[in-house]
Amino acid sequence: MARSNLRIYRGPSEKSAPVRTASKVGNPTVTVNVGEVLPLLADAVASRRTWLSDFEDDEMTISADLYEVLLAYQYYRHPAA
Q: How far apart, in whole angstroms, are the C-alpha atoms of residue 76 and residue 68?
């Protein structure tokens, strides 16, 4: 009989744990790496999850360089008319 290899899950490492803070209006916020969020959001969009519409009007703070890259991507993504 083959042995099964079981491992104990000890949770996320401490340096990758999200940081929860209070924003100016008192709403709790969490600071996470973009690499943690993007795969989840991409999957939710591809799967057409309805809960995404609950957050359509929420604001998001991103770095200026990411914003510039997104603007360039948006511009070059559209095919020429």
A: 12
